[in-house]
Design goal:
The protein has about 300 residues and is α/β, with parallel strands linked by helices. The protein is built from nine helices and ten strands.
């Protein structure tokens, strides 16, 4: 009997010791993973958010046909470079301010200006600080929003366009800039193409193992989904159902957050940067119909 009781006590002691070692191991692993996860999050921001290019596509800066070169300054005095496309028939039905993605510069998207100008709209393409010929260096999302404000002020102030005739069109990272302006200032319509819902959601896509509370520690929040409910204009959300960079689920999340009136356009077979290619003329026709119905003259 004595030996049986001693054996039971010994077994219980071993179980408690094993449990203690397990708890200590979990705590040590957590303490190790948290800094690693935080470091990975910062690397994610540095490697994903901004990819500016100073050189023009093709090596030479050429103002596209039907456009004029423009310069304007943001609130900090940084000089920004842009191309303003004029519709063949004036007055234009609306003025589109195009906010490009995180890579390249405006020379990569001159075809957007040409297509929309051909459908009766004036179009401003511009580069954020540190991109293309714009002055300054890329910094953080506050700089992105300041440059977006400067583009809005340029068309409404210097060009005298009525805010109700201004359409803010963002692609990828540019959707964060366009939505930020639309949430604070009057405009005729907002187009969000291939947009991310937030930096935290993107961190979850890239690092699905990362704890949710760590995902929210990004320096740049890019929290578009929380800003959309404050937008006071019609919203069009467009996304490819095969987007390999920003999943279509984030586009649907943006659509759900936007107030009415709103439209969701999911392009079958389209990835992240090829919606206009896969969608073809029908895609630009849908954009044009939305813009005319929302901000076009004669509305």
């Amino acid at each position: 009997m004595f030996f049986t009781d001693s054996y039971r006590v010994l077994r219980r002691g071993r179980r408690l010791l094993a449990l203690r070692y397990f708890v200590i191991s979990v705590l040590l692993l957590a303490l190790l993973c948290l800094p690693v996860g935080y470091f990975m999050l910062r690397r994610f921001e540095a490697s994903v958010i901004f990819h500016p290019e100073r050189a023009a596509l093709g090596g030479l800066w050429r103002v596209p046909r039907g456009a004029e070169e423009v310069w304007f300054r943001n609130a900090e005095g940084v000089r920004l470079h842009g191309w303003l496309f004029r519709a063949a028939e004036q007055p234009a039905a609306a003025t589109v301010v195009y906010f490009h993605g995180n890579g390249g510069n405006l020379s990569y998207c001159d075809w957007v200006g040409e297509h929309l100008a051909g459908r009766g709209f004036d179009v401003l393409l511009f580069d954020y600080r540190g991109y293309g010929r714009s002055e300054g260096e890329t910094s953080d999302e506050r700089g992105l929003y300041a440059d977006a404000d400067a583009a809005y002020d340029f068309v409404t102030g210097e060009r005298g366009v009525s805010p109700r005739q201004v359409v803010l069109y963002g692609q990828s990272l540019g959707t964060a800039a366009a939505a930020d302006v639309a949430s604070r200032r009057e405009c005729g319509a907002l187009v969000a193409e291939s947009g991310l819902s937030s930096a935290a959601d993107m961190a979850g896509v890239i690092f699905p193992w990362l704890p949710r509370f760590l995902r929210g520690l990004t320096r740049n929040k890019l929290d578009t989904v929380s800003k959309l409910p404050r937008v006071g204009c019609p919203v069009l959300v467009a996304h490819g159902d095969r987007d390999e960079i920003i999943p279509v689920a984030q586009g649907r999340k943006l659509y759900e957050a936007a107030p009415e009136p709103k439209q969701l356009l999911v392009i079958p077979g389209a990835g992240h940067n090829d919606l206009p290619v896969v969608g073809g003329d029908r895609y630009f026709a849908a954009l044009a119909d939305f813009i005319r119905g929302s901000a076009g003259r004669g509305k």
